[in-house]
C-alpha cells in the first residue's frame, strides 16, 4: 500500500548541502499501522512531506495505493492526494467554522453537492464520537475533541491511507490513549493503512504492527514490532522494553535475558538455579505485551566466581535471548 524506494531529499543552504533523507526505503502493507520513530532532526517531518509530494524528493520514488506520486502530473497527483488523509500534531481547525464546517471543508473544495456535504460531515463526526458537537466552534472543544474533528476531516475524502504526524504529542496521557484507540478502531473498520510519525514509544507500543527507526535521514532498524522487540541489544528493543538502572551486587557476572510468548511465564530462573546449584539475583526486570505477544526482560547477576558461559548457553537452549552485560552499563 505504501512503498518508498531509495528516497533522498537534499536541501541547499547557501553553498552547503543538507541531506535530510538519505536513501530511505520502506513498505507498509495494506491494513497495518506502521510507526516511524526518531529523535528531533532525524528526518521524520521531511519524510511526511515527501510522501505527499508537498516537498518534492531529490530522487527516489513514492507509491501509495498503486499510484506513483513522484512522477505523477498535477491532475493525477491531486487525485492521488485525495486518497491520503493527514492528521497533524495540532488539529489546525479554522476558528471561524463549526466542527461540522471544518469537516466539510475538503468536500467543498471538490465541489460535493451541499446536501451530501452536510450528511457526510455529520456522519464522520458520529464516527469519531462527536455526535451532538456539529455546531460547536474550536474554542468550545477540548484538545482531544479538536483532534477528533481533525481525524473526521482527514476521513472526508474517503482515503485509503492515513499519515499521522505526531498526532498525540500535544495531548495528556488519557486523551492520548483515547485517540490511539480511535485510530486503531478506524483502521480496522475502514480497512485503512496508517503511518504514524512519532517520538513517543508509548504510541508504537499501543497501536503499531511494525516500526522503523529513522536516524540521520536513514532507516537503521525496521520490522514487525514483535521481531524488533525480540532483537536483544538493538536500540529499538532497548527503548520498547527498557530496564531501570540497577547496582550490581558484588563482582559476579551480569546477564541480560529476553524471552517472549509461552517462555515469558516459564520458571526459567528457578530451573537454571537448580541446574547449576547457584543463586541468581534479579537486578531489574519488566514485562510488557507488544503486538499481542508478552515479553519478559531481566537483568540478573550470578554469584562471585560463577562461570557465565554455561548459564548463558542454557538460556540459549531454552530459546531465550541472552547477552553478557557490561557492569558499567548496568
TrEMBL record:
Is this entry keyworded Translocase?
yes
Q: What is the lineage of its organism?
A: Bacteria, Bacillati, Actinomycetota, Actinomycetes, Micrococcales
Q: Where is the ABC transporter domain?
A: 2-241
* Protein name, as recorded: ATP-binding cassette domain-containing protein
Whether Hydrolase counts among this entry's keywords is no
Native organism: Arthrobacter hankyongi
Q: Which SMART domains match?
A: AAA (SM00382), NIL (SM00930)
Q: Which GO terms describe its molecular function?
A: ATP binding
Which keywords, in A-to-Z order, does the entry hold? Answer: Amino-acid transport, ATP-binding, Cell membrane, Membrane, Nucleotide-binding, Translocase, Transport
Amino acid at each position: 500500500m505504501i512503498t518508498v524506494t531509495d528516497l533522498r531529499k537534499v536541501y541547499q543552504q547557501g553553498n552547503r548541502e543538507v541531506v535530510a533523507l538519505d536513501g530511505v526505503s520502506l513498505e507498509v502493507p495494506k491494513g497495518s499501522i506502521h510507526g516511524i520513530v526518531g529523535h528531533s532532526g532525524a528526518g521524520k517531518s521531511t519524510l511526511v512531506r515527501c510522501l505527499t509530494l508537498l516537498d518534492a524528493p531529490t530522487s527516489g520514488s513514492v507509491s501509495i495505493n498503486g499510484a506513483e506520486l513522484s512522477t505523477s502530473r498535477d491532475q493525477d497527483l491531486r487525485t492521488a492526494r485525495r486518497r491520503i488523509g493527514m492528521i497533524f500534531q495540532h488539529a489546525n481547525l479554522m476558528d471561524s467554522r463549526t466542527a461540522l464546517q471544518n469537516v466539510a471543508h475538503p468536500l467543498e473544495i471538490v465541489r460535493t453537492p451541499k446536501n451530501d456535504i452536510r450528511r457526510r460531515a455529520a456522519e464522520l463526526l458520529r464516527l469519531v464520537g462527536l455526535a451532538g458537537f456539529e455546531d460547536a466552534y474550536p474554542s468550545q472543544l477540548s484538545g482531544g475533541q479538536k483532534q477528533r474533528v481533525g481525524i473526521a476531516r482527514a476521513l472526508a475524502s474517503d482515503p485509503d491511507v492515513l499519515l499521522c504526524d505526531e498526532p498525540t504529542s500535544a495531548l495528556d496521557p488519557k486523551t492520548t490513549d483515547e485517540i490511539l484507540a480511535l485510530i486503531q478502531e478506524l483502521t480496522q473498520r475502514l480497512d485503512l493503512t496508517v503511518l504514524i510519525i512519532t517520538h513517543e514509544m508509548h504510541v508504537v507500543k499501543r497501536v503499531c504492527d511494525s516500526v522503523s527507526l529513522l536516524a540521520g535521514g536513514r532507516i537503521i532498524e525496521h520490522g514487525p514490532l514483535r521481531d524488533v522487540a525480540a532483537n536483544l541489544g538493538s536500540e529499538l528493543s532497548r527503548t520498547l522494553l527498557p530496564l531501570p538502572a540497577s547496582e550490581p551486587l558484588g563482582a559476579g557476572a551480569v546477564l541480560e535475558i529476553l524471552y517472549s510468548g509461552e517462555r515469558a511465564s516459564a520458571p526459567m530462573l528457578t530451573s537454571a538455579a537448580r541446574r547449576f546449584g547457584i543463586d541468581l539475583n534479579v537486578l531489574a526486570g519488566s514485562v510488557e505485551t507488544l503486538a499481542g505477544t508478552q515479553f519478559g526482560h531481566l537483568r540478573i547477576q550470578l554469584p562471585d566466581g560463577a562461570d557465565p558461559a554455561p548459564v548463558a548457553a542454557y538460556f540459549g537452549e531454552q530459546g531465550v535471548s541472552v547477552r553478557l552485560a557490561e557492569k558499567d552499563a548496568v
